[in-house]
Structures are given as structure tokens and as C-alpha cells.
Amino acid sequence: MTPTRRPVRIDTASPDQQGCLIFADGRLVAACVQLGVEHDPGLAGKWFLEHGFGRLSDCEQPVFDDLDAAERWIVAHLA
Amino acid sequence: VAAKSWRIQRFAVFALLQINTEYLASERFNPGKSGKRSAEAVVRRVLTQAGSVRVAAKNDGEAQSNTTASEPVRASFRAGPGALETERERLVKKLESIGDLGAAEKAALRHLPMLVQELADAEDIVADGDRPSRCCLVLDGFVCRYKLLQDGKRQILSFHTPGDVPDLQSLHLKTMDHSIGALTPSRVGFIAHQVLRELIDRFPALGNLFWRDTLIDAAIFREWMVGLGRRNAHGRIAHLLCEMSLRLKAVGIAREHDFPLPLTQAELADALGLTLVHVNRVLRDLRLREVVTIESRTVSIQNWRRLVALAEFDSTYLHQDARRIT
Q: Are β-strands B143-148 and B298-301 bridged in parallel, bridged antiparallel, or unpaired?
């Protein structure tokens, strides 16, 4: 399974709007959002799994250091 | 007669101290269950009959820093000398807010023998699977009931504040089916089951009130179940804030529009089934809409009616008698 990304702006009803759609074999599996500075310093700048689809739809919503980490987690989760 | 009475009292005090000390040594907390809950509690003060025996009172001058997410501080509601009596009085206030208490019952509660103990934050009071022989009265601070899942996730089941006896059920249910731990540095009074049984035997009205309190506890659980199952993030947070406001008012801690809430956003998330990210966003939104602000670990309600509407809050389930809340 090869993940691909597409940058996107997402309405989260908060300043967090810089997002990224992640596809697995061409199908949308996750929407991630970069957390803004209004979050705890330990979270600001990291990527939050805002919404998962398919097998990611009822899992936890982790926070990742970067999109590479998000992709690795998604690949492992879908394997 | 007076000397004999004094000797008997001294012996009873000594025996109680021995029993409680041995009990503490034998049934200490179980750090293996929760990993981080390993701090060893120190008995700062021992009280048997109110005011009669005290050891090593602790200075409670800790500063409270800015609000936010991570470091819990003591939720101290105390106010100088005589504070311990004020803390014990909160049990009287709490029970008075839900039913009738006669002078004799109040006196018995005020002089209830208990072992007072200081707890660090994140320290367990009693753990899942324990078979306690005492109940704990929260005197100062915030504690919670919780369950841990195998992957380490925590579900906070309820918050408890001064005047609450969160493990009253252990009088009748011998094995704990959840854990109780301090969320902030806290002070609790351990009351032996035998002492409670004798109290209830002597004052059946108190037994009825404890029963009523347990039923209200169940009603609170039902409301939380509705929230976890059906309310959105705004509704869950708003409902908790409405509930805590009324519960803390009943014991004289909340003022009209503000009350202490020294919980981290992570603890709110664990209680409300939300992510830390969503808790942060909702609190920010409520602040920007001038509904409620949490700052310096204090909740300030700017728009009570809006908060109630967001929560669909109906206080009936708390079964408080407003006329009794002073």
C-alpha cells in the first residue's frame, strides 16, 4: 500500500485549518490537521488525525510529529 | 469518673491509631495498576476526635500558577486556622443539601473519627480489586474514580470534591470494581467501615441520607452516560461545568459565577471521552463566545443561561434542595 498526500484547508471551527488528505492506493483514508499555537506547547505544530475513514474511522485520534509519522502509522494500521 | 473516662478515651485513641497505622502499612496503594501512581503518601496529620490529636500539620502555601493543560496544583479551598473543621463541615453541608439532618446527627458527623492523610497528585486512594476496610472523605482537593483499559487508556468515571465520600459503596461491595485516585494534591479522611456501621446503627437517619447520596451518585452516572453517548463536545463540557458549579455551591466552595477547577485538559478529555485537541478547541470557543472562561484553574461563568442551553442542563438529577444550600 502506497500512501499519497494532498494539501487542503479544513474547517475545524478553530484556527487549525492547515490540513492534509492522505490516500491509500488512491482512496481517502485520513484527514490530518496541523495544530496551531493555541494548543498546549507540546502539541502545537504537530499533526492531528482529524478524521479517519474506513478502518481508521473508529480508532483513536493520535497526534503525530510530522506527516511522515502519520503515514507510517496509517500504513501500519491498514496492514 | 472524669479520669477514668479520659483514660478510656486515650486508650481508644491509641487503639484507633494503631489499627489505622497497621492498616495503612498493609493495604497501601497499588502502583503496579496504573504505573505512574507510585508516590508514597505521608501521614501529615492524624485526627481522632475533632481537634484532640494532631501531628505535623502541613503548611498549605503552595502558589497556584497559570491555567492550562498540564500541571495539576492543589485545589485548596482552605482558609487558615480552623480549616480542618471547615473541611469536615463540608460533609455536613453536602448531606444537608440533599436531606434533613438533626442536631445529633450533625454533631456525630462533626466528631466522626478519621485518619487524615495528605496525598500527592496522581496517587491512588484505593485500587481496582482492593478489598478496603474504610471509606474516604474528601477534605481538600480533587479526586476521581476511574478505570484503566489494557492499552493504558483511562476513563474517568466521576470527579469528587470536598464533602464527597466517593467509595461509600465499599461498605457493602467488598471488592473495588474501579480505582479512586487524587487528581491534585489532596487531603482525605479515612473512616473505618466499622465506625460508619456504628454511626448508621446509632443514627438511622444518617443511613437513609447515605443511601440517598448513593442514589444521587447513580443519577449522576446516568447523566454522564447520556453525555458520553449522545452529547456533542460542547454539550459534554458545558454539562460538566454546570454540574460542578452546583455541586461545589452545595458545600460552600463555588461562588455565584466562579469556582475552582484545577483539572488538566487531559483529565477533562479522559472524563468526557474527547481528545485533548477537542477539549482545547471547545474551551477556546466558549471563551470567545463569552460563555465561560477557565483561567488560573478557576472557572468563570459569563453567561449561565447560554451554558445551561448548550448543556441541556436540568439539575433535577442532583436532587439538591436549594433552600438548604447556604
A: unpaired
The predicted-structure confidence for B236-263, as pLDDT tens digits, reads as follows 999 999 999 999 999 999 998 899 999 9
Q: What ipTM was estimated for this complex?
A: 0.94
Min Cα distance A31 → chain B (Å) is: 15
Q: Inter-chain contact B277–A38, Cβ cutoff 8 Å?
A: no
Contact A16 B276 (CB under 8 A): no
State pLDDT tens for residues B283-318.
999 999 999 999 999 999 999 999 999 999 999 999
Residues of A with CB under 8 A from a CB of B: 12-14, 16, 35, 38-40, 42-43, 48, 60-61, 63
Which residues from B are below 8 Å from A12, CB to CB? 281
pLDDT of residue B5 exceeding 70, the answer is no
Residue B48 has pLDDT above 80, yes or no: no
Amino acid (one-letter) located at B183: L
| Greatest distance between any 2 Cα atoms in chain A | 35
Name the residue facing A38 among B275, B276, B284 (closest C-beta).
B284
Residue-wise burial string across B269-302, b where 16 or more C-beta atoms lie within 10 A, e elsewhere: bbbbbbbbbbbbbbbbebeeeebbbbeebebebe
**Percentages of chain A per state (helix, strand, coil), in multiples of 5:** 20, 40, 45
Residues of A with Cβ-Cβ distance to B69 under 8 angstroms: 40
Contacts of B172 (CB under 8 A, 6+ apart): none
**Which residues have C-beta within 8 Å of that of residue B294, sequence separation ≥ 6?**
B67, B261, B283, B287, B300
Asked if residues B153 and B35 have their Cβ atoms less than 8 Å apart, the reply is no
pLDDT value for B84: 79
Checking if the pLDDT of B16 tops 50, the result is no
Is the pLDDT score of B46 beyond 60? no
